[in-house]
Amino acid sequence: MVLTLVMSHSIFYSGHHQQKRITDAFIDWFVHKYIGKRYKLDFHVVTKGLVKENLYGEMGVLDSLSRPRLFEIVIRYNLSKWDYLVTLAHEMIHCKQRVYKEYVTRYNRNYWYKSFVPDSVPYLDEPWEVEARKWEYYLAHESIRQGIITTVTPE
Question: Is the pTM here over 0.70, yes or no?
């Protein structure tokens, strides 16, 4: 396990990690630009198969859902650099949603901006997923345009 300490957050790694530079640069940029220094956040970035689950990535809160500060981001290890960056952007949007209490879970019930979201809402229609998909490509492109990510070419 490798630990990178920066500003108001730390990043831990485990698994088959091949995209450390992309991950470090993107998380540093994203936290600075979209979350800020107010919160002390920790990110555990895991790369593994996820093929059986048919996922590119997922984000989980490892500490308290009422005050989330420790996040685990799991990303499929064999993605292209572009798909890896887009997936990381998507999962970081979920981290921001949790930190700012846009997306909250209380008593096994999900809320989006304080409005209850029933379990019957299909996954692709969940508002936090809609927002993450809306912004993932923009953030990936923007991080490249600003020179934060230099080793990725959009596909």
Answer: yes
The amino acid occupying position 21 is: R
Nearest to 17 by CA among 56, 45, 57: 45
Q: Amino acid identity of 64?
A: S
3-state secondary structure (DSSP) of residue 33: helix
Give me 70's structure tokens: 């420790």
CA 11 – CA 133 distance, rounded (Å): 24
Helix (H) / strand (E) containing 110: strand 109-112
Bigger pLDDT: 146 vs 7: 146
**Token pair recorded at residue 6:** 């920066």
Q: Is the dihedral of CA 62, 48, 55, 83 positive or negative?
A: positive
CB distance 141 to 154 below 8 Å: yes
